[in-house]
Design goal:
It is a single chain. 25% of the residues lie in helices and 21% in strands. By secondary structure, the protein is α/β, with parallel strands linked by helices. The strands form four sheets. Strands 3-2-1-4-5-7-6 form a seven-stranded mixed β-sheet, with helices on both faces. Strand 12 and strand 13 form a beta hairpin. The N and C termini lie far apart (46 Å).
């Protein structure tokens, strides 16, 4: 499939400096390479993200870091200037973002998923959605006039892919190095890598785009969903005779018959697409897709399930980087993107995910068993456990 952003105006609305790097910088870079105008709106100052050695006037430092990252990307930069933890969906913040929309005139908005982990992410999500409607209403007065039509809206992936089932992936393989260089601008946050209440950002970013890439059978990808609501869903322009859309077939969802390129059966009863790319040729795979899981690092003793899995189902586990596969029978019903054990894990043994020790088994965990809070104890914030492991 070929997605062409030429002529579009793509605006990412994110909560904090460094959020765009995690979730959508590759897509923005790809859009710019296609000829799109791109922008990033950062709603919060990032002033509460202090490392162990506090930084004086952190908001100003992060403002400079974000400006450097946006310059590397070639994106226009807008700021909401709200303090961390103070962002909320309400008239003042809506008016500020409506004005930004009217200045930039986006045809597509990328926004945090409504269920993302951070309160500021969820607030930015609600604001991005509300402003995408009200920016066209003349009754909402700002210095700039109303625009038309409403921009399309895509929800971005969540942090660590938690609770997010993608409708489609954007191949960002050619832009991973740019994502890394942009992330390197955020030195104040990279210095927090060892903090117990934080995650190493570059590692998180790379693992996530590699995992999403594996789902889409490319080296790196970013995942999205369309906002399924009136006037934010429009038909695609496609080349050739077949007209299709981003998403998955409602009739086939239960059997995991996902939309993939270059297969023979035409998709029917699909979600409408929330964007207007020049070429979208997505078809429905004719046979049922096998259940798959990823083991990202050679040291991992848990696997990430791609799509929901039922008790008794067989899962093909792929060892990323080697291509080695192994079949595991699930012993529990497991939600999409959650963990299970591809090997037996003894009580007290460390749980290794993405090559990192994330906790220890609180009981014996059998091969194929769901791995979650009921049978693991987290290391985070537990210096005594970190010393033992």
């Amino acid at each position: 499939m070929r997605l062409d952003f030429s002529g579009e105006r793509v605006l990412a609305v994110v909560a904090h400096p460094d959020d765009a790097e995690l979730f959508c910088a590759g897509t923005l870079a790809r859009a710019k390479a296609d000829g799109a105008t791109i922008g990033i709106c950062v709603m919060c100052q990032g002033d509460k993200g202090q490392p162990a050695e506090p930084i004086a006037n952190l908001a100003a430092v992060r403002r400079k870091e974000m400006a450097a990252a946006a310059k590397l990307l070639g994106a226009q930069l807008f700021r909401g200037e709200y303090g961390d933890g103070r962002l909320a969906d309400g008239p003042p913040a809506r008016k500020k973002l409506i004005q930004i929309y009217r200045r930039f005139k986006p045809t597509l908005v990328l926004a945090h998923a409504p269920n993302d982990y951070h309160a500021d992410h969820r607030a930015a999500s609600a604001l991005a959605e509300a402003a995408s409607w009200f920016c066209t209403a003349a009754g909402h007065k700002t210095a700039a006039p109303a625009i038309s039509p409403q921009p399309a809206l895509w929800w971005m992936d969540t942090a660590n892919m938690a609770g997010f089932l993608p409708e489609f992936h954007v191949d960002v393989t050619d832009y991973v190095d740019l994502k890394r260089r942009m992330m390197a601008c955020h030195k104040s946050q990279l210095s927090r890598a060892a903090d117990g209440d934080f995650s190493p950002l570059e590692g998180l970013m790379l693992r996530q785009c590699q995992a999403r890439g594996a789902q889409a059978e490319v080296p790196a990808a970013e995942a999205f969903r369309t906002h399924q609501t009136w006037k934010r869903v429009r038909a695609c322009e496609v080349r050739g005779a077949v007209r299709a859309c981003f998403g998955f077939c409602l009739a086939a969802a239960a059997t995991r018959q996902w939309l993939f390129p270059d297969v023979a059966v035409r998709a029917k009863n699909c979600f409408g697409c929330g964007h207007r790319p020049r070429c979208v040729n997505y078809y429905l795979k004719g046979e049922q897709m096998s259940l798959r899981a990823l083991i990202i690092h050679a040291d991992d003793n848990v696997a990430n399930l791609i799509g929901p899995g039922g008790k008794g189902e067989s899962v093909e586990c792929t060892f990323e980087g080697t291509g080695k596969t192994e079949t595991v029978t699930l012993l529990d019903d497991i939600p999409s993107n959650h963990k299970f054990a591809p090997v037996d894990i003894g009580a007290g043994q460390p749980i290794i995910k993405y090559g990192l020790n994330i906790g220890r088994a609180s009981c014996d965990i059998r091969k194929g068993e769901y791995v979650h809070i009921h049978n693991i104890e987290s290391n985070r914030g537990r210096g005594d456990l970190q010393e033992q492991t």
